[in-house]
Every structure is written in structure tokens, then in C-alpha cells.
Design goal:
Helix content is 32%, strand content 21%. The protein is α/β, with parallel strands linked by helices. Helix 4 runs antiparallel to helix 5, helix 5 crosses helix 6 and helix 10 crosses helix 11. The structure holds ligand 6R9.
């Protein structure tokens, strides 16, 4: 295996200027963490974060796995991201270059972002929102979105951002779970030249019931259509904040104070509210932005993620701002007005660090190969010095294309493995140090103790695939699942490993010679479609909630060239198995139903109908058989425990 590896050493000029330069520097940091774990994190927490009250204790393991970091320190995340930069003389520096869907550009300086954040914070305070309250944010990519998150952090309110592509039902579920007092939204979002309603979805969500905690809906004006406003409950953000002071004393919170809740999919049940801390989270956000992205004062950083996902939280709202960087916030989509949009924006704004997802790269490769005008070669991308990838494994072919055509062969690529639960990068190259191997996320970030183990937690030798775990707590780790500490323990610190190791939910293998990690995919029932995490159970429940039609449903993933994985649903209807046009019409109806229940991202690509599902005699659905059928593979597995073997032929037909 090692023989075939293509290795890209860090370019000498990059290494020479990098924050972490050379493998010896990387190894020295790992060694420092190994020798004195708390000393290492304590040193970095003092260097990167401004504390109101300094902490005296780094790590408290007394209630493991509910770890506490820097617990007697106090700080404010928004102070660290905004005021501190202004105090350092960066007030006039551009914090955000916002590019709207239609191409209009707005630059916002640190002083302006601070003033805006303070006004929103004062507005929230005037509504009685205070430390410990939850605030939902359901808004598109915008300066207002970032400022709303910062404003919550400023007053100690815990934000919970819901991605604008989620449905009313999903939003309702999250509102109910958080017990939020207010929602910040916009009248609409603009994507691909179209105005799509947001506030109307909030109204629908609140109408579904269970949202009694919501007292106020604050609406940012984005579009020009009329927007229904419920008197007493709804208010335009502009009306609330205009005339309010542009300064607001930060609420100093304990390091463990929950900065945000972000919902993500697990293998069972409803999405879980991942709770992050303030101190430890912010430290890792800042530290990884510094070391993995090598962020410097004159960089223009662009993370294309949405603030509705963890990548947008850590690498748009918090990390780059904590370091006083300049970043792009982009409202639109990569294919509008054409598939050259990303390349044109890199050229126009002289982006130097670009961070995106493999699924975007793969779809832009397709477009570029079909049309020279949207090929990166038609743009001046010479400002780029570093590229990044996140969200799913990047296949070597896409890696090579990204490296050659976007990075001009000179930019290192950081393939960053991490999760909503980890808060920031866990396994990733450091661009001035780590030799790169396409398809591998290489080595753990200094201080992070990831390992590959067997089912009972024994270390596996390099070259043997197994289960990815983290052996030690780290500052930006998930603190709990909101409202469900038992589920937190069961999901992440299972008894299989005596409750000692963090279970990532992914499989991994280390290269026999280099020890480099390659992620082999989820080992649970979580799918990764275009970098979006979804539980198969969630999609199944959405399907069976179409009670007039569906008797039973099973959902599996199958490989897809563009989206990484595609959702494939096997459905048993309450009526005879449909074929031809009837099957097509019902499949469309079911897709729309899932879109309504969860959101368009969860719509199954394939829907196959059967008289039944393959089950064991004890009635368990044999998903591994469904996975083979979805791939179009011949069934070679043992089917002796199968109750109804004939069903395989029927489901194998593409109907
Ligand atoms: C940041 C983010 C987490 C899951 C994770 C894994 C997959 C993320 C990856 C990767 C291979 C990478 N994943 N980055 N797999 N290589 N560089 O994506 O968070 O949405 O919670 O997803 O995504 O399967 O477990 P999240």
C-alpha cells in the first residue's frame, strides 16, 4: 500500500513562512502535549484567548465523560472576536467581505461588525433575553447571521442555528427541544437568483405547535416581497435596533457556559442537540484556524460552508474573527450565474485560503470539463496559497484536480477530518509541515489522541482497519446532548470501551508505513450526502409518517460520483406494489413528503417498491443486503437467515 502512495512535500517557501514549519515542529508540539497534556492546552489557552478572569485549572475529569475545561476562567466569545481586534488597532480592517447572490459586495470592518453586534445584543436585552436563554437563528448566509450569533454570545444567550434548507417540521422540533425564547430570521433568502421564503417557514413551524417558549420573532429584511407579521410577536430587526447604542458591555461567562447548540443526526431517533462550551471551543476554533489554515494578517480567507453547519460556526463566525482575519461571506450558490462563480470570486477578492467540500469540487469538475469558460484555468487564481477540504472523504482524483487546476500545483491541500461534536479539526495536515497523500487526512492535530481500535478498544496495528476513537478529552469536545446526558454517554462513551474512549462513529485505517489515517466511512446508520449528515432512521420515519401510503420503509446509502453517497429508499406500500408511471408518481409524492418533513437535502434519490423487505426470521431488516441491491451488486452474502429470499429479485429490479 505504501509503495503506491504519491507524496506531496510542503513547498519550501510555504514551510518557511508557516506558523508550524516542518515535521520537527509538529512532532515537538505532539511531544509537548504528551509530556504535559494540561500544560500544553493551558499554555495555548493563555496565548490565544483573552480571559476576563484567568483560569487556574485546565481540565477537570471528576465527572467524566462530562469533562470541564478551564472551568474557573471567565471570558466572552464576542469580546475575543471583535473588541479585542479593535483594541489591537484593527478597527478599520475588513472583517467580512460579503458577496450577495447577485454579486453586490459589501465590506464590513471590525468596528462596524462590533457596532452591529452590540446593537443586536442591546435589542435582545431589551426583549428580556439574558444569559442562559436560547435563541434560534434561521437565516441565510449574511453579515446579519454572523452578527446575530456574535450578539447572542455577547449577552451569554446560547444560539442554535438551523440551516435554511430545513423544513418547518425540523425547525419546530429544534425549537421545542431547545425551549428557545426568540427566533432571528429573515423575510427570505436569495439563492440562484430566486427569493425563497424563510419567515413563512418560521410561521408554519410555530403553527405546528409545541413552540410556546417563543416570545419573539425578529425579522431581518432581505427581499422585497410582502411578509406577514404577527402583531406583538414579530418585529423587524431594523425597527428593534435602530437608535440603540452601538456599545454593549459583554456578559462575562464561565468557560463551560454553553456557547451554542447545533443539531446533528445520529443513528437513532431524533437529531441531537450537540452542546458546545465557550472557552474550550473558542480556543480550538482559533488554534486550528491558525495552524491548519496558517492564517496571517493579510490573508483573505474563504470557507464556503453555511453558518447552519458546524463548519460555518467554527470557520466563519468564530475562528477567523478570533484571529483578526479577513473573510468572505457568500450568500449564493456555486453554480449561479454559472459554475465559474467560486473561481471568479477567488479572482475578484484575491482569496488566499479556500476551504470547501469534496462534493462541490466534484460537481465543479464536471461543469469545468464540459465548458472551458467555467474551468478554473479561465480565471486568475494566483492569489491562492492554501486549499482545504471538509465534510467527507476526498477521493484522490478530485484531490489531484483541486491541487492542479485550482491550486496551480503550488498550494497544499488540508484534508480536515472532524465532526459537529469535535468543534474543530481533529485529524488534518498542517500545511507547512505534513507531507500530503491524496485521500488521507494524514495525522492528528497536535494534542489530539485519535487511535484505531477493535470492538473492545484494543489498539490495532497500522494497516488494519477498525474503529476511530479519541483516547483523551480535548478542549472543544461536545459537552453533552442538550437535555439528554444519558444519550450523550451512550452515543459517545459506550461501555464497549469501558466508557473511556470517545467514539467518533467512523471507521479508519492507518497506513502501514506512515501511520497516516484514512477515514473509511461511518460505522453507524448515518449517511453523508454532499457532506450533509443524515440518519437513515430519520428518513425512514419521515417516509412512514406518510401514513396513507407507506407501510414500511428502509433507507440505505449507495456510493455516488458527485454527492459521495446517495439516499436509496426501499418502500412497501399499503397498496399493491406499483410499477411504471404509477411508481414514478408515488416516488415523487414520497420525495416531496420527505422534503416537507426534514428538508430537500433528505429527499431519496432512488425509491424502490417491494411487496416486502428482506428480513431475518426474527423480523430484522437485512440492511447489508439492501446496500448491495442499492449498489446494483450481485448478492454474494450469506442469505441463509433470510425469511423471504425471493424478495431480493423483486427489489433488485430497477422500478
Ligand atoms: C465537519 C463536519 C462529520 C462526519 C464525520 C465523517 C465525515 C468530515 C471528513 C469526513 C472523511 C474528512 N467527514 N470530514 N470524512 N474525511 N475530511 O463535516 O461535521 O457534519 O458533523 O460530519 O463527516 O464521517 O463523522 P459533520
Amino acid at each position: 500500500m505504501s509503495e503506491e502512495l504519491k507524496v506531496y512535500a510542503p513547498p519550501a517557501d510555504f514551510a518557511a513562512q508557516a506558523h508550524v514549519s516542518g515535521m520537527a515542529a509538529y512532532e515537538a508540539l505532539c511531544k509537548e502535549a504528551e509530556t504535559d497534556y494540561e500544560g500544553y492546552w493551558g499554555r495555548l489557552a493563555k496565548e490565544l484567548i483573552s480571559w476576563k478572569t484567568p483560569f487556574t485549572k485546565v481540565l477537570n475529569e471528576a465527572e467524566a465523560p462530562f469533562f470541564k475545561w478551564f472551568e474557573d476562567g471567565t471570558l466572552n466569545a464576542s469580546y475575543n472576536c471583535l473588541d479585542r481586534n479593535v483594541e489591537r488597532g484593527l478597527g478599520d480592517k475588513t472583517a467580512i467581505i460579503f458577496e450577495a447572490d447577485g454579486g453586490e459586495v459589501t465590506k464590513v470592518s471590525y468596528s462596524e461588525l462590533l457596532a452591529k453586534t452590540c446593537q443586536i445584543a442591546n435589542g435582545l436585552k431589551s426583549l428580556g433575553i439574558k444569559k442562559g436563554d436560547r435563541v434560534m437563528i434561521y437565516i441565510a448566509m449574511s453579515v446579519d447571521g454572523v452578527a446575530a450569533m456574535q450578539a447572542c454570545a455577547r449577552i451569554g444567550a446560547t444560539h442554535s442555528v438551523v440551516f435554511g434548507g430545513f423544513s418547518a417540521q425540523s425547525l419546530r422540533d429544534r425549537i421545542e427541544d431547545t425551549g428557545a425564547k426568540a427566533i432571528i430570521t429573515a423575510d427570505c433568502q436569495v439563492r440562484g437568483g430566486k427569493q425563497l421564503p424563510l419567515k413563512a417557514i418560521v410561521d408554519e413551524a410555530l403553527g405546528l405547535g409545541g413552540c410556546d417558549s417563543i416570545q419573539k420573532v425578529l425579522v431581518v429584511k432581505r427581499g422585497d416581497a410582502k411578509c406577514a407579521m404577527t402583531a406583538g410577536r414579530d418585529q423587524w430587526m431594523d425597527d428593534l435596533v435602530s437608535g440603540l447604542p452601538t456599545t454593549c458591555e459583554p456578559e462575562w461567562v464561565e468557560a463551560e457556559h454553553p456557547l451554542f447548540l447545533l443539531y446533528t443526526s445520529g443513528s437513532t431517533g431524533k437529531p441531537k442537540g450537540v452542546q458546545h462550551s465557550t472557552g474550550g471551543y473558542l480556543l480550538h476554533a482559533a488554534l486550528t484556524t491558525k495552524w491548519t489554515f496558517d492564517l496571517k494578517a493579510d490573508d483573505v480567507f474563504w470557507c464556503t460552508a453555511d453558518i447552519g453547519w458546524v463548519t460555518g460556526h467554527t470557520y466563519i463566525t468564530y475562528g477567523p474573527l478570533a484571529l483578526g482575519g479577513t473573510e468572505i461571506v457568500f450568500e449564493g450558490v456555486p453554480t449561479y450565474p454559472d459554475a465559474g462563480r467560486f473561481w471568479k470570486m477567488i479572482q475578484d477578492h484575491k482569496v488566499s485560503i479556500f476551504y470547501t467540500a469534496p462534493t462541490a469540487i466534484r460537481s465543479l469538475i464536471k461543469a469545468a470539463e464540459a465548458n472551458d469558460a467555467v474551468h478554473p484555468k479561465s480565471y486568475d487564481l494566483s492569489s491562492l496559497r492554501l486549499l482545504g477540504s471538509v465534510g467527507e472523504p476526498i477521493n484522490p482524483a478530485a484531490w489531484e484536480w483541486y491541487h492542479q487546476h485550482v491550486g496551480g500545483g503550488r498550494c497544499p491541500i488540508v484534508d480536515t477530518f472532524w465532526q459537529t461534536e469535535t468543534g474543530g479539526h481533529m485529524i488534518t495536515p498542517l500545511p507547512g509541515a505534513t507531507p500530503l497523500v491524496p485521500g488521507s487526512c494524514t495525522l492528528p492535530f497536535p494534542g489530539i489522541q485519535f487511535a484505531v481500535v477493535d470492538e473492545v478498544g484494543n489498539d490495532l496495528p497500522w494497516g488494519k482497519g477498525g474503529i476511530l476513537v479519541c483516547k483523551k478529552p480535548w478542549p472543544s469536545m461536545i459537552r453533552t446532548i442538550w437535555g439528554d446526558p444519558e444519550r450523550f454517554k451512550k452515543s459517545y462513551y459506550p461501555e464497549d470501551f469501558k466508557g473511556k474512549y470517545y467514539l467518533a462513529g467512523d471507521g479508519a485505517i492507518r497506513d502501514e508505513k506512515t501511520g497516516y489515517f484514512t477515514i473509511t466511512g461511518r460505522i453507524d446508520d448515518v449517511l453523508n450526502v454532499s457532506g450533509h449528515r443524515m440518519g437513515t432512521m430519520e428518513i425512514e420515519s419521515a417516509l412512514v409518517s406518510c401514513t396513507e401510503l407507506v407501510a414500511e420503509a428502509a433507507v440505505v446509502g449507495r456510493p455516488d460520483d458527485t454527492t459521495g453517497e446517495a439516499i436509496c429508499a426501499f418502500v412497501v406500500l399499503k397498496r399493491p406494489r406499483p410499477t411504471g408511471d404509477e411508481a414514478k408518481a408515488i416516488a415523487k409524492q414520497l420525495r416531496d413528503h420527505v422534503g416537507k418533513e426534514i428538508g430537500p437535502i433528505a429527499k431519496p434519490k432512488d425509491i424502490r417498491f417491494g411487496d416486502n423487505l428482506p428480513k431475518t426470521r426474527s423480523g430484522k431488516i437485512m440492511r447489508r443486503l439492501l446496500r448491495s441491491l442499492a449498489k446494483g451488486e450481485a448478492i454474494t452474502q450469506d442469505t441463509s437467515t433470510l425469511e423471504n429470499p425471493a424478495i431480493l429479485d423483486q427489489l433488485g429490479e430497477n422500478n
